[in-house]
Sequence to fold (81 residues):
Amino acid sequence: MKKNFNFFFVLLSLIFLNLNVHAFEENGKGTVDLANYTSFEEEKNEIIKDAKVLACKMRYKNMYQPLQLIKKRISKKLNQK
Fold:
């Protein structure tokens, strides 16, 4: 009985130690019009930088709006009382 318990304990330990944990981060998305640039190869770094700026702004906007709605709801509840 004890051997079976030890076997299952070791087996379960090995299974849980080998599991991979995956994290997921929601990112913003920035779209840049390539018509504004002369050549992708020459201005690649500038295009990437502009896309990152747009993505950061969009992500901030998507995070900030729900917080404002929550603030409004709380203030309405407080004003009603």
